[in-house]
Design a protein that fits this description.
heterodimer, A: 437 residues, Rossmann fold, 2 domains, seven-stranded mixed sheet, five-stranded parallel sheet, 44% helix, globular, B: 294 residues, mainly alpha, ABC transporter involved in vitamin B12 uptake, BtuC
Chain lengths: 437, 294
C-alpha cells in the first residue's frame, strides 16, 4: 500500500469514526436508516410558562414506548429530549438552532407554544423537520410553512368558546359584564380581540381589559382596579400567575370569588393545583368554568396512551398527571403519526415522509382506521392505506396543516379530572363566530 | 381616588417585602464586597423550607423563623464552601459575580426536581381583612409591614450601637486596617453571612406569603427587585436600600393604578435608570451606615 493510499484509508476511517461519534444519522435516500431517532420537545420548561413543557414531554415519553416496543421505526428507537425556550422568543431561537445543529437524527419536533412559535417555527421549517406546535396564534391559520402542523384550533375559537360559556353555559344566567385578565405574553393576548368582539357583538360589555405581567409578585392594585368595575365574570388565561391573582380577588372581595372562565390551557394539572391551593377546592369547583376540545378519554388509542403515560412515571414522575391534558394527547398522536408516515414511505428522509403525515391523519378513500402504532405498521405491511385515529380523536387537516375540532364546556371534579358541563349548539357556535368576525 | 389610596396601602406591603430582601443583599455586598447573585435562589429555597413545614401542619410564622435559620446556615455555608476558596485564590470581582451566577443556576436546577415546576401556596396565610380610609389590607399584610419595620430598626441598632455593628462598618470601610486594629474580620464576615442570610431567608418566606402562590421560577424575580432597590439606594448602603425599597414598592403599585399594570415594573425600573443617570453612585452613597467613619 502506497503512502498516499494509506493516508486516504486513515482519512476515510477517521471520517467514518467521526460520523459514528456524531450519533444519529439522517437518511437522505430510501430506507429507514439506523441509530436512535430523536423527538425534540421545544417548549418552556422554566420561566412563567414552565408548566407547559412538561405536558409535551409527557406526550413524547408516552409515544416512544408505543413505537419502540413494536419494533421501532425500522428497528430505530425513538428518544425524547427537552429544549428549554423559557417561554421567551429571545431564548427560543438559540434553543432551536442548538437543537437542530446538534441532532441530525430529529424525526419531529413538538411543543412550540405561542410564546415562541413565531420565531422557532420558521427555523424548524427551514431545517425540514416536521413539527407539531401548540400555538393558537392566528398567523398560523393560513401558514405557508410546509413542516408545521397544528392539532388544535386557533385561539380565536378558544376565545369564542369562552364567550359561549359566559352566554350559554349551564347553571347561570348569561353574564353581562366581563373582565378580561390575560397574561401580557403573546399567546395569552391572542384571546383579547376575538373575545371582546364576540362578547360585545352579542350584547355583553367588557368592563375592563387588564393585561397582567406574568410572574409579578402581586396583583393587589390590579385586582382593586378590576373589582371597581364590578364584573359578573372574569375571562382569563394567566398561566403561572392565576393562583396569585385569583387569591387576591377572593381576599379583596371579602372572601367571595367571582365566576371565572378559563381557556383550554387551564385544563392542566399544574394550573388546577395552583388555583386549588390558592383559593381552595370548593371555590374552584363552584366558580370555575373552562372550555376544551371534545375528548372522550376512552377507546383503544386512549387506553394505550394512558398505560404508557403511567409507565413513564419511572422517567418523569409527573407524567401520569397529564392523562387529561389535551395537548399531551394531541402531541402523542402527532409523534405516532410521524412514525407511521416514516414506515409508510419507508424513508427517514423528512422531505419524503412529511407530506405523508397528512394522509395518515386524514386518511384516504378506503383507508383502514388504526388506533395505535402496532396496528398501523401491520396494516401498512399488508399493503393497506391507513387513517390514524389517536388518543385525541380524529384529525382533519386543512390545506394549511391545521386540524380543527369543536369545543365542549367543562369544569373540574375535586381530583382535578375534567368534567363535561355542556356543549355549544351549532347555532350558538355560528353566532359566536359571526359576532367575533 | 380610592384606587390610589388602596394602591398606597399595597405599596406599603410591597416596600416592606422589598426592604427586608434589599437590606440583606446590600449589607452582604457592603461588608463582604461580594455581589451574591444566588441571593434570590436562597430566598426561594427558604420559602420552600417554610412551605414544607407549613404543609406538615406547622404555623407559617414558625415556618418563617425556620426559613430565616435555613437562609442563615445556607448563606454561611455558601460563603465558606464556595465563595471564600475562590476569594482566597484571588479571583477577580467579576469572576466572583460569575461564580455566584453559576451557584444561582445550580441551586435552581438542583431544586427543580425536588420541589417541582408548579406553583404552591402556604395554608391559611391571608388573615382577616381590614379597611381603613380606602386602604384595604389583611392582618397578615399588616404583620409583614410590622416585621419589616422592626427588622429595619434592629439593623439600625446593630450597625450604630453594637460592637459587632461597629466592627462590620470598620470591615466594610477598610478590612486590612480593621484587621490590623485587632478586629477579627473573618469572624465578622461569618457573622455578616449569617445575619444577611437570615434576612434573605426571612425575605423569601415573606415574599412568598405576599405572592399567595409561588414557584421555583420566582427566585430570579426576587433577586431583580432586591438588586434594584439596593442599587437605587447606593450599593452597600442599608439605609439607601430602605429608601430604594420605598421608591420601588410605591412606584410599582401607584403606576399600576395610574397606567397599564403590565408596565408597572417598567415604570419602576425606568426611575431606577433615571436616578442612575443623574446619580450613578445611588441615592445614599458615602452617607450610609456602612460608609467610612469620619
Amino acid at each position: 500500500m502506497s503512502r498516499f493510499q494509506a493516508s486516504r484509508l486513515v482519512s476515510a476511517v477517521g471520517a467514518l469514526l467521526l460520523v459514528a461519534a456524531c450519533g444519529g444519522t439522517t437518511n437522505t435516500g430510501g430506507g429507514l436508516g439506523s441509530g436512535d431517532l430523536l423527538v425534540g420537545v421545544i417548549a418552556p420548561f422554566t420561566g412563567a410558562d414552565a408548566g407547559l413543557g412538561p405536558a409535551y414531554y409527557a406526550a413524547c415519553l408516552a409515544a416512544a414506548p408505543s413505537i419502540n416496543s413494536n419494533g421501532g421505526i425500522g428497528g430505530r428507537q425513538v428518544k425524547c429530549q427537552q429544549f428549554d425556550t423559557r417561554g421567551e422568543p429571545a431564548d427560543a431561537v438559540p434553543a432551536a438552532n442548538q437543537m437542530i445543529a446538534a441532532n441530525s437524527n430529529l424525526m419531529a419536533v413538538v411543543g412550540c407554544t405561542s410564546d415562541e412559535a413565531a420565531t422557532v417555527a420558521p427555523i424548524i421549517d427551514r431545517a425540514h423537520i416536521p413539527m407539531f406546535c401548540m400555538t393558537g396564534q392566528s398567523e398560523f391559520n393560513k401558514t405557508t410553512l410546509k413542516y408545521f402542523h397544528r392539532l388544535v384550533p386557533a385561539d380565536v375559537y378558544d376565545a369564542f368558546a369562552m364567550v359561549g360559556s359566559a352566554l350559554y353555559g349551564p347553571g347561570h344566567a348569561p353574564y353581562k359584564n366581563a373582565a378580561l385578565v390575560f397574561g401580557d405574553d403573546i399567546g395569552s393576548q391572542a384571546f383579547v380581540d376575538p373575545a371582546t368582539k364576540s362578547f360585545t357583538g352579542l350584547g355583553g360589555k367588557i368592563v375592563i381589559n387588564q393585561p397582567i405581567k406574568l410572574g409579578a409578585s402581586s396583583y393587589r392594585t390590579e385586582v382593586a382596579a378590576m373589582l371597581k368595575t364590578n364584573p359578573d365574570v372574569i375571562f382569563t388565561e394567566a398561566l403561572g400567575s392565576a393562583g396569585t391573582y385569583l387569591k387576591e380577588v377572593k381576599t379583596q372581595n371579602n372572601g367571595k370569588m367571582i365566576p371565572f372562565i378559563g381557556s383550554s390551557a387551564t385544563i392542566d394539572p399544574t394550573w388546577f393545583q395552583q388555583v386549588r391551593d390558592a383559593i381552595g377546592i370548593d371555590d374552584l369547583l363552584k366558580y370555575y368554568a373552562g372550555v376544551d376540545l371534545g375528548y372522550t378519554f376512552s377507546g383503544p388509542a386512549y387506553s394505550e396512551f394512558l398505560t404508557n403515560l403511567n409507565a413513564a412515571a419511572s422517567t418523569f414522575a409527573d407524567a401520569p398527571k397529564y392523562k387529561q391534558r389535551g395537548s399531551t394527547l394531541h402531541l402523542y398522536d402527532g409523534i405516532i403519526m410521524t412514525a407511521l408516515a416514516m414506515v409508510a414511505t419507508n424513508s427517514a428522509d423528512r422531505t419524503v415522509y412529511n407530506p405523508k403525515i397528512i394522509d395518515i391523519a386524514n386518511g384516504t378513500s378506503g383507508a383502514t382506521v388504526v388506533n395505535n402504532y402496532k396496528d398501523g405498521v401491520a396494516a401498512l405491511r399488508a399493503g393497506k392505506s391507513i387513517r390514524f385515529v389517536g388518543a385525541g380523536g380524529q384529525n382533519n387537516f386543512d390545506q394549511f396543516n391545521n386540524s380543527q375540532s369543536g369545543y365542549i364546556l367543562v369544569g373540574y371534579d375535586k381530583d382535578g379530572n375534567e368534567v363535561t358541563a355542556g356543549q355549544l349548539t351549532p347555532d350558538q357556535t355560528s353566532k359566536l363566530i359571526a359576532a367575533g368576525g | 381616588m380610592d384606587l390610589y389610596v388602596a394602591a398606597f396601602g399595597f405599596g406599603l406591603v410591597s416596600m416592606s417585602v422589598i426592604a427586608i430582601a434589599a437590606v440583606g443583599f446590600t449589607m452582604q455586598f457592603g461588608i463582604t464586597n461580594m455581589i451574591n447573585l444566588a441571593y434570590g435562589e436562597v430566598m426561594i429555597s427558604s420559602a420552600y423550607v417554610a412551605y414544607y413545614l407549613n404543609k406538615a401542619g406547622i404555623s407559617i410564622w414558625i415556618g418563617m423563623i425556620a426559613g430565616a435559620l435555613f437562609g442563615a446556615v445556607f448563606s454561611f455555608l455558601l460563603n465558606r464552601i464556595v465563595y471564600a476558596p475562590f476569594l482566597r485564590k484571588g479571583t477577580s470581582h467579576i469572576g466572583m459575580v460569575i461564580v455566584s451566577l453559576a451557584v444561582s443556576l445550580m441551586i435552581a436546577n438542583l431544586l427543580l426536581p425536588i420541589v417541582g415546576y408548579y406553583n404552591v401556596s402556604y395554608q391559611d396565610t391571608t388573615g382577616g381583612l381590614i379597611r381603613a380610609g380606602g386602604i384595604v389590607l389583611t392582618t397578615n399584610q399588616i404583620a409583614i409591614i410590622g416585621i419589616a419595620v422592626v427588622l429595619m430598626l434592629l439593623i439600625h441598632g446593630l450597625l450604630r450601637y453594637t460592637r459587632l455593628g461597629k466592627a462590620m462598618r470598620a470591615t466594610a470601610a477598610n478590612p486590612t486596617l480593621a484587621r490590623n486594629c485587632g478586629i477579627p474580620t473573618q469572624r465578622v464576615v461569618d457573622a455578616v453571612w449569617l445575619i444577611t442570610g437570615a434576612l434573605c431567608g426571612l425575605a423569601g418566606v415573606v415574599a412568598a406569603m405576599n405572592s399567595d402562590s409561588f414557584a421555583i421560577a420566582n427566585g430570579a424575580g426576587f433577586l431583580i427587585t432586591a438588586l434594584a432597590a439596593a442599587v437605587l439606594g447606593g450599593a452597600g448602603q442599608p439605609y439607601g436600600a430602605m429608601i430604594g425599597a420605598v421608591i420601588i414598592g410605591m412606584v410599582t403599585e401607584l403606576s399600576a393604578a395610574a397606567w397599564a399594570p403590565e408596565y408597572k415594573e417598567v415604570v419602576a425600573f425606568g426611575i431606577l435608570v433615571a436616578v442612575m443617570v443623574l446619580r450613578p453612585q445611588g441615592l445614599l452613597a458615602k452617607r450610609g451606615a456602612l460608609a467610612a467613619a469620619g
